[in-house]
Amino acid sequence: MHARSGTFAHVARIGARCLGAICLAVAAPAATAQRAQPPIVPQAGKWRMTQDLTPAQAASIAGLPPQVHAQIGYDPAAKTITTVLCLSPQSIKEWEDAERQLRETGRAQCDDPVYAASGDAMTMTLKCTAPRPLTVRNSYRFNAARDGYTYESETTVTISGRPETRRTHGAARRIGDC
Fold first, then answer.
1. pLDDT at residue 23 in the model
2. What is the mean pLDDT of residues 85-111?
3. What is the pLDDT of residues 123-141, one digit of tens each?
4. Distance between CA atoms of residues 126 and 137, nearest Å
5. What are the φ/ψ torsions at residue 117 (nearest 5 degrees)?
6. What is the C-alpha to C-alpha distance for residues 78 and 169, in angstroms, rounded to an integer?
7. Which of 144, 154, 147, 155 is nearest to 171 (CA)?
8. Which terminus of the chain, N or C, has fewer Cβ atoms within 10 Å?
9. Is 69 helix (H, G, I), strand (E, B) or coil?
10. Which burial class, exposed, middle or buried, applies to 66 when counting CB atoms under 10 A from its CB (0-12, 13-18, 19+)?
């Protein structure tokens, strides 16, 4: 696998995290009762998330092998990455279990997310200190049926003592049942 492909597989998962960050309470409220709960939650089901890439992101992905493009859902014509995932009680439990394992092993040290909502808009802020300093700020705008939304995400991570900020945006739509 190309050395950069892991980085872009991570970028492709940002859209899934955007959905996952707002959905942890859907299926397992007892397990997350002490954690902050998102005030707006999308419908359960199969979701397609499309993240628009910046010209720099698209240029860095363009040279990767076609099999990597397929693996990360890259569309070179549209300059997007598309991810399809299932939002269900089982998938949310798996996300929660993985998050809990990261916290319990000390591999991730993050504050609970902070949510704010007004009308059909919601923001989520998450701050972590390990494995490296990280701040994520997501903004969502939902449709009335909660089966679609647009998002903007700003992630600032400190690498080798220097903060780097990445901005992404895109849209998600429920496309059916799991």
1. 42
2. 84
3. 999 999 888 889 999 999 9
4. 7
5. -140, 150
6. 14
7. 147
8. N
9. helix
10. exposed
